[in-house]
Amino acid sequence: MTEPVLSVRDLTVAFATRRGLLTAIDRVSFDIGRGEILGVVGESGAGKSVTGSAVIGLIDPPGRVAGGEIRLGGERIDTLSPAEMRRVRGKRIGMIFQDPLTSLDPLFRVGDQIVETLRTHTGLSARAARARAIDLLAEVGIPAPERRIDGYPHEFSGGMRQRVVIALALAAEPELIIADEPTTALDVSVQAQIITLLKRLCRDHGTAVMLVTHDMGVIAEAADRVAVMYAGRLAEIGPVASVVRDPHHPYAVGLMGAIPTLSQDADRLSQIPGAMPRLTAIPPGCAFNPRCPKVFARCRVDRPEPLPVGPSRVACHLYDKAARAA
Amino acid sequence: MSGQDLDTGDIAAVPQPGAAAPSRWTAFRDSDLLASFLRSKLAVGALIATAVMVALALAAPLISPQNPYDPAQLDLINSNLPPIWQAEGQAPFYLGTDDQGRDVLSAVLYGLRLSLIVGVLGVLTSGILGIALGLVAGYAGGALDTLIMRIADVQLTFPAILIALVVDGVAKAAFGGALDVGPLIGLIVVSIGLSFWVQYARTVRSSVMVEKGKDYVQAARLIGLSAPVIMVRHVLPNVTGPVFVIATINLALAIITEATLSFLGTGLPETMPSLGTLIRTGNRFLFSGEWWIVAFPGLALAGLVIAINLLGDWLRDALNPKLQ
Amino acid sequence: MLAFLLRRVIQAAAVLAVVGLIAFSMFRFAGDPVNQIVGPDTPVSERAEIRKSLGLDDPVIVQFGRYAGDVLRGEFGISYQFRQPVSRLLADRMPATLELAFCATVFALVVGVLMGVYCALRRDSWLAGLFQAVSLVGISLPTFLTGILLIFLFSVTLGWLPSYGRGDTVRLGWWTTGFLTASGLKALILPSITLGMFQMTLIMRLVRAEMLEVLRTDYIRFARARGLTTRAVHLRHALKNTLVPVITIAGLQLGSVIAFSIITETVFQWPGMGLLFVQAVQNVDIPIMSAYLLLVALIFVTINLVVDILYTVVDPRLRLPAGKAA
User: Fold this and answer.
1) Which chains does chain A touch, 3 or more C-beta pairs < 8 A?
2) Is A98 inside a domain boundary?
3) Which residues of chain C does A171 touch, with a Cβ-Cβ cutoff of 8 Å?
4) Does residue C114 belong to the interface with chain A, where contact is any CB pair within 8 Å?
């Protein structure tokens, strides 16, 4: 297998607070290959967005990467200096935020924002950058781009703005795009268009995507593989078909059970009892043990490590064959 | 957080105004407000400094070596003495004397007293005026509201000191010639009152507008309470926090305004000097080397205003957690 | 946009009319104008004559109309103290005040914005702490004390700068300027700092608070994620967004600078309109007082209008077609 575009090993992110160190991300590992879309799912506060911010090096103080390593195209990037990391952002890793309404600077024309990004990362002349910006706007499906390029963000609708944001993220042809809830703030009718667009662009450019979302529909639609996060830890990661149709981790089972499908009776949607623990009160052992329907003694003591189960890796003692055999 | 605690204190106080005092005090004692105050060293320092200055000012007649307002106590032999730590300094003139032999320390203490009195009276005047106009504007609405708030808008375009100067000048023109010290103080207080009422009026008015629609006011109206009673009993307690903040900050502004008027020569006379008047007269001696005549009144004024401003800043932040 | 401007112009005219009414009332009712013209032993018949010739027997509304007409022609009556037309006295003094106010505003804006930006970007540095402390003192210290302190330091103790007057001035038509001579420029320094100090601290606090707010916005995070240089993020995007609200306040402060020059001009014996006004108040010279009041109102109202227009120029969101701008 070729080298993955992004390789994250034992990533740990901690926030220094008045009450001590809070571990927001706890030893998370995953890879994303070229042209692959990895969906990252979980409830709010599970650490999905923080993982994305950690990869692009934009964790706000008092947070910091406390352990593990992040490699981009084989090169370690979590140890880069701020100036070097700045050159990676936008150039090799693009990012798309949740709310297109607030992602663009309201005082600058969209064209100027694209040109500025292009010229920061490439040697393009102002004129060439403008031509490229028009191409980019056309590519993300903005009608009459040569006219719209001089518009201000407030003159675009939400969906159109998210297209501009995608154009900005793609401007310098990055190897990886981190899309943090790219459709959450959009109308349902626009969501599908944006996902389709993102999928097509990444296939065409061979860009790897880390798609952070809590919307399982988006994952099922767009992702190749999916990672399920719970309380800052990775619960299960595997091909989307396997994780969605045949999840192993009890939390993933519960999560998938909560997706409405047409074939299923709507009022039999399952719900996971209880709530995700706060970062200050993660129980010992498996973080999911207080809510788990299949909990047993070991879950309250030992933290499970992700182990291969079929094509997936699952962090659950239920699948620890060695231990069960013993 | 502290705001929440304060709010509950206020709400608890609304239905039973009679029983409010003890519960309000307990609420205050147990609230984050006190804790946040004790945490802020700057605020504690400012409070102590303010308290010391107020105490000194109030005790001025008892502790001053001299009554600087009494010409009989001044002796030209003692004129232009430097502070005690310089070679020519003499006890009991610890901070030196001016050209008329007036003890600077005494003058500062009496001046501090006068500045504080005028400032407090000015704040009271502007507060009462502003609260009353705000209540009326908010409750009456309509043309009266428009009129009051337009006047407020127009007035806000001018700095307070200009308004105070104009009021002062016009009043002098109207009364013609020199006024006695008493009426003069009254005039300055009124000038300050007319310059600073707008903020209170706006705050109170907007609060009245909010409260007016609430059920309990409607209910009070149904059981036959008259409008003034409803406003004073039910609406006023809700604005005590903001009004108190405005009053604290305005106290500093009022003291500065009085000092400025006196400095400009339109305030208190030299026979009964406030800190501003002292600085005005002392300013003349800056070039002849008698720096202490202006320095100590200046220090006292600056210290007083900074301490009060610090208190006001802290109070505003503590009462309004959103404005960090 | 046009409707918006029109509404503003009407509001401005209304404010001026109200101030005009106040100025007229002062002029007419505060003290008998006849007494200011004649001596105490003028016979009653002559008084009546003068009264009639001045039109003081006409109905008040007619008098106000005449007053308004005079004012519009730039005639504000005769000063009681100087026995000269007030308009000429004011015109003579105006250059001094405007030059002082201009320098004070430049000082306040440049130093205030620089210190504010520094405090926002290096929040925890000792210099930012020092600036904060200076701002507290600056906002607390009465203007005249600042002036006296500066005079004591730079004129009395060090002997570097003059403590009063404008120095040598050059006459350009009816305008006298201190900008063209070394002594004129030196004389401007201390009064400008004194006058600008309060505004400077105000602007600094405002810029700091506003910029901290802006730095937390999504579009700044996104600008970082695009890999823009720290310089571009801070000084292009953050600063421009910070300055939008600051412009309003700073612009409105310009009016107070002119009004506050009353105090500074007294401290430095600066031969401007403010000093003239203070002398007028001391000597109950009503024509000068009412004219000054009107002039300051005119300046304030004009500045407010200009600020409103400037605001729409800087913020594209306000440049909506008429009707939508609400």
Assistant:
1) C
2) no
3) 226
4) no
Q: Domain range holding A133?
A: 103-171
Nearest-Cα distance to chain B for C112, in Å, is 20
Domain boundary residue among A171, A200, A216? A171
Are A237 and A135 found together in one domain? no
Q: What are the backbone angles phi and psi of residue C257, rounded to the nearest 5°?
A: -60, -45
Cβ-proximal residues to A168 (8 Å cutoff; 6+ apart), any chain = A94, A113, A114, A117, C222, C226
Report how far residue C312's alpha carbon sits from residue B213's, in angstroms, rounded to the nearest whole number: 36
Q: Indicate whether A79 and A123 sit together in one domain.
A: no
Residues of B in contact with C158 (CB under 8 A): none
Same domain, A188 and A81: yes
Does any CB of chain A come closer than 8 Å to the CB of residue C314? yes
Cis peptide before A62 (omega within 30 of 0): yes
Instruction: Give the pLDDT of chain C (326 residues) as one tens digit per residue.
Output: 677 778 878 878 887 888 888 888 877 776 566 666 666 667 777 777 777 776 677 777 787 888 788 877 777 777 777 888 888 888 888 888 989 998 998 899 899 999 999 998 888 888 888 888 888 888 888 888 888 888 888 888 888 888 888 878 788 877 888 888 888 888 888 999 999 888 888 888 888 888 888 888 888 888 888 888 888 888 888 888 888 778 777 777 777 788 788 889 988 888 989 899 888 888 778 888 888 888 888 888 888 788 777 777 766 666 654 333 33
Find out whether A24 and A52 touch, Cβ atoms under 8 Å.
no
Q: What is the pTM of this model?
A: 0.78
**Backbone torsions φ then ψ of B47, nearest 5 degrees:** -65, -45
Q: C278, B174: Cβ pair inside 8 Å?
A: no
Q: Which amino acid is at B234?
A: H
User: What part of B 216-255 touches C (C-beta under 8 Å)?
Assistant: 252
β-pairing, A6-17 vs A312-314, is unpaired
Provide the number of structural domains found in chain A. 2
Strand (E) positions, B87-144? none
Window C:168-227, CB contacts with B under 8 Å:
none
Which residues in chain B have Cβ-Cβ distances shorter than 8 Å to C293?
Answer: 162, 166
Show residues of chain A in contact with C310, CB under 8 Å: none
Please report all neighbours of B, defined by 3+ CB atom pairs within 8 A.
Answer: C
Query: Per residue in A17-72, pLDDT tens?
Result: 777 778 888 888 888 988 889 989 888 778 888 888 888 888 887 788 888 888 88
Residue A147 lies in a domain: yes
Q: Count contacts between A and C (CB, < 8 Å).
A: 77
Residues A183, A307: one domain?
yes
Half-sphere CA count of C243, side-chain side, radius 13 A = 19
- In this structure, the answer to whether residues A220 and A80 fall within a common structural domain is yes
Three-class SS of residue A285? coil
- Using an 8 Å Cβ cutoff, are A186 and A162 in contact? yes
Domain boundary residue among A122, A155, A171?
A171
CATH number at residue A230: 3.40.50.300
For chain A, helix (H) and strand (E) counts, in that order, are 12, 12
Query: Is residue A1 domain-resident?
Result: no
- Which residues, in sequence order, are CB contacts of A125 under 8 Å at separation 6+? none
Residue keyed to tokens 């099922």: A220
Residue C45 burial (CB count, 10 A)? 8
Using an 8 Å CB-CB cutoff, list chain A residues near C244. 107
Q: A19 and A155 share a domain?
A: no
Residues A160 and A256 both lie in one domain: no
Chains C and B touch (3+ CB pairs under 8 A): yes
Residues forming beta bridges with residue C84, ordered by sequence position: none
Residues A275 and A200 reside in one and the same domain: yes
- In contact, C271 and C278? CB cutoff 8 Å: no
Asked whether residue A226 is domain-assigned, the answer is: yes
Distance of CA C68 to the CA centre of its chain: 24
